[in-house]
Design goal:
heterotrimer, A alpha/beta (260), B mainly alpha (255), C mainly alpha (258), A: 260 residues, alpha/beta, 6-stranded mixed β-sheet, 4-stranded antiparallel β-sheet, 35% helix, 22% strand, C: 258 residues, mainly alpha, 0% strand
Chain lengths: 260, 255, 258
């Protein structure tokens, strides 16, 4: 594996919801290289979402820091977009699909024509070109999540953060969305950090899987995934290496969970 | 605690600003007397038996009107809420009456009933009727379905279901209707006095004072007293709501 | 079929009510106090509906005052309500003052306003605005304060400038509550328009109403009440229409959520 320079660095990150509460995440350090696809998995309550929100600048860490290209993040960084799990509440129901995707572009220094092009292209990429003039609530859950991904893609971020993006759709839709996310990632050469509780998903998608421990969330392990790309829902998942890796991650998560 | 502190700070700042504005001649004192003068005048009329008699007059029309509205609105609401057919039949009449601004009835009621207490009570009752009526109708409708089915399955009679299930479950909503009506009733009680004059009342007192040109601070003081009256009525009814329906989660959710 | 039967029932009940009114008033035979339905509608027709002079001399000034006052209430209410809704500190500081001012029955301010502002149109507009502003202000503050947190986060995550966040996220999200406030405030505005014209003016629908009462012209009183009822109904219907257009997404979204 070639050495790539880190785009995102997380150093000694800690977050407490109040000064006397136990930390939700504690001393988390890792880095993500340019164009890398990294997943964070962990048992529920391990602070995955908190970690993501700190990286996104939506919450200020109580200790440690997040750096993007060496610069410390204090507010929401410019080069970053986020896809939330709850597409139903992150898309704006009073706007059409087109306007939802367009909204974040309005304040970027791009011409109106380019804006429209970007929206069209992003919607086409996620297979939603025909739904541009419909409202989010007229679409199925999987389609809404496609729109949310298109919104992030159109923003052309250096780093794409995804918080359990496929958590609330059925299995078939989920597989489709995973392959679509991979296609988008490959096409744009962007960097993706994905939070999930689904072990299979993390192995299937990523170059590297980070395992968080039970609260306080600490980095328990870091597993490189050297499966060949492009990956395939049936072939890859049936391969011996995939099964091995999945088992390893699952064991680590079980160990990370509290003994009860 | 911090909220109380901030609230007190806000009120204090407003008080000081008003005081300074007139003391520094930014505002003509004949239009807006200093806040401290208004406060003193409020204390003066709040202990003046003649003024308190006027407050009593307003409260009498208010109370009787509100009671009559409840006495008509709650039973009528129960009936219309539990029978789809009677509701349908009455909506036309209700939709015709409701858009009429209640104060528009004052001249008509003066012609029909004169300027006495009964005119005021009827007007207050008419305006206060609507929130009570609609809250009762909607409450009874919403409660029902499952609870009523269950009760019927256990063989309770219609009347027993109404008394044991529907009414207790609807009570918080009905009470909310009464609380809303109480505020409207006060507005109408004072409106009637302003326009019809007649017996003792805050509105009568204000109109006659504004015509005879008493010191401005007395007019302001009268307004402060009515504001406090409105606050007190709402505060008492809200406190009653919390005491009576502590079990009812909506009361807490609504806070 | 069921809908048709519902309409049929309603129409027949309406007819029954009006016929009863007609019958009773004919039997009572006291046209001064209890005019018949036919008489009232006839007078409403000649005195208001088909009388352009009355429109120009009474209805137009009344509507102008109403709309000016209400527009002022909307502007101040939405602006202040948004500011209060966005800041918990502003809510705490201004809360008691707002609740006190709201508790004052607006008609009680009338004598003072007459003394301060005279009996002109400005006074009436201020009076209407003062009474109508509270439901808008409180509903806006409430709606803005309870915007879905994920909507706000999404706005922040995409670094939306405050202008975009306000106009395209916060206000649309609060719009259903704001409209609820607008509806309440509009009916308050009509009441205050009538009452301010009753106490002090030389024209307007409220003025005509009081003149008719003073002249013991009860038929005119009835006809004017009919007019005010229709006015209230029409204003409400127009607002409901605007609301239905502006909140189409809201109805769609809540229907799918069920």
């Amino acid at each position: 594996m070639s050495v790539r320079r880190p785009l995102l660095e997380v150093a000694g990150l800690e977050y407490r919801y109040s000064p006397d509460a136990a930390p939700a995440i504690h001393d988390v350090s890792f880095s993500v290289a340019e164009a890398e696809f990294v997943s964070v998995v962990g048992p529920s309550g391990s602070g995955k979402t908190t970690l993501l929100r700190c990286i996104a600048g939506l919450q200020q860490p109580t200790a440690g820091e997040v750096r993007i290209r060496g610069r410390t993040v204090r507010d929401v960084p410019e080069e970053l977009a986020i896809v939330f799990q709850d597409y139903g509440r992150s898309l704006f129901p009073w706007m059409t699909v087109r306007h939802n995707v367009e909204l974040p572009l309005r304040h970027l220094p791009v011409s109106r024509g380019e804006r429209t092009d970007r929206v069209e292209a992003a919607l086409a990429e996620v297979g939603m070109a025909d739904a541009a003039d419909r409202y989010p609530w007229q679409l199925s859950g999987g389609m809404q999540q496609r729109v949310a991904i298109a919104r992030a893609v159109a923003y052309q971020p250096r780093i794409l953060l995804m918080d359990e993006p496929f958590g609330s759709v059925d299995a078939q839709t989920r597989a489709d969305l995973q392959d679509m996310a991979l296609a988008v990632w490959r096409a744009h050469g962007s960097t993706v950090l994905l939070v999930t509780h689904d072990v299979d998903e993390s192995v299937y998608l990523s170059d590297r899987v980070l395992v968080l421990s039970q609260p306080p969330g600490m980095l328990a392990a870091e597993i490189p995934v050297a499966l060949p790309r492009p990956r395939d829902q049936i072939e890859t998942r049936a391969s011996h290496d995939f099964v091995e890796l999945r088992a390893e991650v699952a064991r680590l998560i079980r160990r990370a969970a509290p003994a009860d | 605690m911090i909220r109380l502190l901030r609230g007190v700070t806000g009120a204090a700042i407003l008080f000081i600003l008003l005081e300074l504005a007139t003391r520094a001649d930014l505002v003509n004192a004949t239009y807006l007397p200093p806040a401290s003068t208004i406060l003193a005048a409020t204390g003066q009329i709040a202990t003046d038996p003649a003024f308190l008699g006027n407050v009593g007059g307003t409260l009498l029309a208010w109370g009787l009107g509100l009671l009559s509205a409840a006495a008509v609105g709650i039973p009528l609401g129960l009936l219309l809420g539990s029978s789809r057919r009677s509701y349908l039949a009455s909506t036309t009449a209700i939709e015709l009456l409701r858009p009429i601004p209640s104060v528009a009835l004052i001249p008509l009621l003066i012609l029909l009933l004169g300027r006495g207490l009964d005119m005021r009570v009827l007007l207050v009752a008419y305006a206060a009727l609507w929130p009570i009526l609609f809250n009762t109708i909607y409450a009874i409708r919403e409660v029902d379905a499952l609870a009523r089915e269950t009760a019927r399955a256990y063989g309770l009679s219609r009347l027993a279901i109404l008394r044991r299930i529907s009414l207790p479950a609807a009570a918080p909503f009905i009470y909310t209707g009464v609380r809303i009506s109480a505020g409207i009733a006060l507005i109408l009680a004072i409106s009637a006095e302003l326009i019809a004059g007649g017996g003792p009342g805050i509105g009568t007192w204000m109109i006659s004072n504004s015509e005879t040109g008493v010191p401005r601070e007395l007019l302001y003081a009268g307004i402060v007293v009515t504001g406090l009256l409105g606050l007190a009525i709402n505060g008492l009814l809200s406190a009653g709501e919390r005491r009576l329906f502590r079990w009812h989660h909506r009361v807490r959710a609504a806070q | 079929m069921k809908v048709l039967r519902g309409i049929g029932l309603r129409v027949s009940v309406l007819a029954a009510v009006l016929i009863t009114w007609q019958l009773i008033t004919v039997l009572v035979d006291d046209p001064v106090n209890w005019p018949t339905f036919a008489d009232v509608i006839g007078r409403f027709w000649t005195r208001w509906l088909t009388n352009p002079d009355a429109w120009a001399s009474s209805l137009a000034p009344s509507l102008a005052r109403l709309l000016a006052g209400w527009a002022g209430a909307v502007l101040v209410g939405v602006a202040t309500g948004t500011a209060i809704g966005l800041s918990a500190r502003a809510r705490d500081v201004l809360g008691p003052i707002v609740h006190f001012l709201r508790a004052i029955p607006p008609p009680a301010l009338l004598p003072l306003f007459i003394v301060l502002l005279g009996i002109g149109d400005g006074m009436k507009a201020v009076m209407i605005a003062f009474g109508a502003v509270w439901p808008i202000l409180l509903n806006t503050a409430d709606g803005v304060a309870s915007v879905e947190p994920l909507h706000r986060d999404t706005g922040r995550a995409f670094r939306l400038p405050f202008r975009d966040e306000l106009w395209r996220v916060i206000l649309p999200a609060a719009a259903p509550r704001i409209f609820a406030g607008l509806r309440i405030s509009l009916s308050i505005a009509v009441i205050l328009m009538v009452i301010s014209e009753m106490v002090a003016t030389v024209n307007g629908v409220g003025f005509e109403l009081v003149q008719a009462q003073r002249g013991f012209r009860s038929l005119d009183v009835w006809a004017t009440i009919v007019l005010l009822g229709m006015l209230g109904y029409a204003l409400n219907a127009v607002l409901a229409l605007i609301e239905a257009g502006a909140l189409r997404w809201h109805r769609g979204a809540t229907r799918t959520a069920e």
